[in-house]
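lol forgot to send this yesterday, sorry. struct tokens for the thing we talked abt
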């Protein structure tokens, strides 16, 4: 089969790989119809995630058609068109029983923290991802779900991570009616978080980024106030000033490990790999939220040290909530929001690339060319 293959930082290409096979009675093999490149895939592409091995296939956002199932699989059948959450999880361990699918204890030898994630290094279990023609889906009875007949394919693929994670970020904020919510990052997750904040009762939504085309998208899709931090000497002072000098009620970090805004933090994190990620956006969230407020973190960070202002969070009495999204837990509400027209995930998509052009797709997305916000990958004919 043809698949995207990692060959080192900034080096990806399409190669022939042996097709995946049924390795366990609960496995399924899915022929990928549509995949996406996520902002967190860029952390792998840039060499920031530990134990990203040469030969790995990325891609944790994908939908497709079931081509083969193991003898124990009962809930999906050959020919079913399914959407697959980015979490690999067993459905029965201590954490899964509590709905914490992202923290499954049975799918990752490194599961003291994160569970399994498709195409996201051996730190997250070593599973090949969906930027390929075929992908092995373990625990096929608990992860994949049939795509509703009424749902657009591009909506479905966005619900496997980006939109679900943005919704989860707003959910972690415990937003109450009238809250002022500030979202750091106007990428796909940040846009979804801003849209979701309104659904949860926010009275005001502010989005902060430094790319004008992404801020324009935030105004268009999320009807948010927007600020370009590159145009202001101190974005925290700005946010305090526009919130009656109190700060926001809720701050959502939808940026993660490669946040711009501080040359020192960017160099020590992205270049020298001395931190698990540049904590600029997270520190801005801590500083700009009011005392007693809530900080929600859904941006991806690596497992090692980051220079976070934890003392400030303690002294302000903040609530910090964070995790990888438990995707399937969000689907019932998200399906209703999409069906009722409150959310249209496909509006976030800006580019579509055939699988054979995967190197170009990563370059365009990484370099922020051509107004790229969310690229999709089409394994078959484009």
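and heres what i got for the seq, position by position
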């Amino acid at each position: 089969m043809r698949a995207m293959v990692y060959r080192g930082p900034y080096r990806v290409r399409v190669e022939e790989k042996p097709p995946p096979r049924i390795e366990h009675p609960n496995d399924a093999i899915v022929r990928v119809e549509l995949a996406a490149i996520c902002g967190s895939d860029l952390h792998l592409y840039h060499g920031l995630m530990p134990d990203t091995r040469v030969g790995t296939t990325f891609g944790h956002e994908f939908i497709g058609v079931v081509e083969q199932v193991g003898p124990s699989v009962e809930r999906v059948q050959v020919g079913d068109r399914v959407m697959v959450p980015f979490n690999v999880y067993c459905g029965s361990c201590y954490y899964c029983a509590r709905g914490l699918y992202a923290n499954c204890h049975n799918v990752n030898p490194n599961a003291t923290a994160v569970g399994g994630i498709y195409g996201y290094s051996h730190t997250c279990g070593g599973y090949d991802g969906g930027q390929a023609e075929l992908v092995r889906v373990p625990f096929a009875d608990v992860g994949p779900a049939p795509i509703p007949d009424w749902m657009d394919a591009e909506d479905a693929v966005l619900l496997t991570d980006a939109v679900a994670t943005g919704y989860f970020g707003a959910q972690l904020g415990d937003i109450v009616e009238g809250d002022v919510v500030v979202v750091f990052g106007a990428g796909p997750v940040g846009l979804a978080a801003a849209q979701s904040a309104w659904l949860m009762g926010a009275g005001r939504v502010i989005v902060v980024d430094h790319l004008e085309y992404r801020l324009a998208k935030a105004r268009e899709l999320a009807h948010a106030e927007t600020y370009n931090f590159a145009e202001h000497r101190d974005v925290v002072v700005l946010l305090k000033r526009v919130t009656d000098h109190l700060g926001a009620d809720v701050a959502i970090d939808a940026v993660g490990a490669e946040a711009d805004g501080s040359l020192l933090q960017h160099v020590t994190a992205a270049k020298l790999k001395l931190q698990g990620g540049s904590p600029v956006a997270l520190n801005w969230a801590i500083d700009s939220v009011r005392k007693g407020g809530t900080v929600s973190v859904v941006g991806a960070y690596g497992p090692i040290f980051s220079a976070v202002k934890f003392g400030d969070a303690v002294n302000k009495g903040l609530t910090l909530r964070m995790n990888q999204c438990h995707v399937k837990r969000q689907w019932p509400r998200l399906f209703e929001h999409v069906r009722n027209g409150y959310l249209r995930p496909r509006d976030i998509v800006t580019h579509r690339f055939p699988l054979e052009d995967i190197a170009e797709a990563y370059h365009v997305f990484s370099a922020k060319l051509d107004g790229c916000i969310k690229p999709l990958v089409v394994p078959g004919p484009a």
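The chain is about 25% helix and 25% strand. anyway ping me if u want another try
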